[in-house]
Amino acid sequence: NLSSAAAVITADGELAVELGGGEVVWTTGNAAAVEAVEARLLEEGNLVLVGGDGGVVWRSFDFPADTWLPGMNLTGDRFLTSWRGFGDPGVGKYSLRLKPPEYGEVELVFDGTESYWSTGKWTGSAFHFTNPFKPTASFGYTETSLESGVRPPLTRFHLDTSGQLRQYTWSPQAENWNMFWSQPENLCTVYGHCGNFGFCNARLLTPCNCIANFQPVDSGAWDSGDFSSGCCPQDAAKCSSDDGFQEVGVVSFDGAVSESFSGGRSECDSTCLSNCSCVGLIHNSRTNLCKALFGSLLNLKNLTSDSTNDDILYIRVPKEGVTKKKKKRTMILIGKIGGIVVVISAVMVVVALLFLRRIRIKRVKREKEEEDAGEKWFFPPWAAKRIIEGDVAAVVDERLVAGGYDVVEAERVGLVAVWCIQDEEGRRPTMGMVVKMLEGVVEVGVPPPPKLLQALVSGESFHGVGADSGTGESDRGNSVDSHNHSSTAE
């Protein structure tokens, strides 16, 4: 009964989690050291146990889970590990560690062996390929005050169950965490992202799909974006010598162990069917080379149509589950392409309804206000301000209000629109990222208010993004001299 669980300091001086009946499910394991008399949660998020002499006898920062906070160090035997799944804090298959044997770079690893992303080597001041953070000599990272004395926003790194490393910053105004950086950007480069028998295609809205006649092992996890459980045959019948083979095509994959021999297709089939551990085969009709496959088929990807590779993959399935490959795959592709077109079209229509209709309604009211206030009014920055403040209803067409609309979706669309009109080009999301944001795959944070558009209309000079627009300091390198280069709109 988790409702009766409690954290207690035991007679041995350990911090333990006990269930209602006194059953201990976790301890800090520091009994052999100095006994603790008090537990403290420090401001930086470090949970510590303090001994009778006031010294720290145990620190949670020495035992990282899936989150990396400022002041927490990685070492040769201390690394991050993802959760097993959504809602399951068990040990997952992905980890962030220092790369052995030199330990001069940070890498993401699958199952402790397969590296699929790295920062590049440490040069003394930054990593060679990418520099999302600047670690200290012990490969931790810290936050220092800016020249103005203002501290940057609190940040943390999180190793997601998808195998992606994400960086978040805390927004005191919105009181939530905003994700602004993640690696690898292409989820299909994450080892085992789609699990066993799962195809990965980063161009699709949902990157993972099962092989024809296969289905997700855990449909609930797939619906929530966790594809690591992979796929299994729709007919879960036991292994039989009457099984058949489903043609998949020319693909690349990882994970499986193969046994090669020469022979025709019939000999290849019978050899695989004689062993229930054989999950499929590869046959080359030109060379008559056959490979029986055992284990998991991970990272399945279609090779290009102009590939000269004649190795065809066939997956073992119950005899009644064998279907023609081309017809099935064509239907899947048409469905996906159609879905993309519908989503993009729907987004364009929604944005048009949200903004163009509102411009007509507000224009007459605003003209008089402009005369009274002596300033020019422009809809995009006005709407952006309302959206950032959480008042998305102010920019929604009255007809949508009357018919009812999803407030959460409207807020998401509005925030994405504001990100797309940011002053700095580097802050604007790519079209691929926009799709992910609208889909809900990527969290949409609260953007800083854009100022350039309003400056162009009002005739004011534009001095870059100020400290109040989310960067913490003015962008003086991109400023425009107000006397010689002011921008005006006719």
UniProtKB/TrEMBL annotation:
Domain Apple residue range list: 239-317
Topology of this chain in the membrane: Single-pass membrane protein
The keyword Membrane appears for this protein: yes
Domain Bulb-type lectin: 1-62
Membrane-crossing residue ranges in chain numbering: 333-356
Location of the protein in the cell: Membrane
Name of the molecule in the record: Bulb-type lectin domain-containing protein
This protein's GO CC annotations: membrane
Keywords: Disulfide bond, Glycoprotein, Membrane, Signal, Transmembrane, Transmembrane helix
Region of interest called Disordered, as start-end residue ranges on this chain: 464-490
Residue spans of biased composition, Basic and acidic residues class: 473-484
One annotated GO biological process: recognition of pollen
Major place of residence: membrane
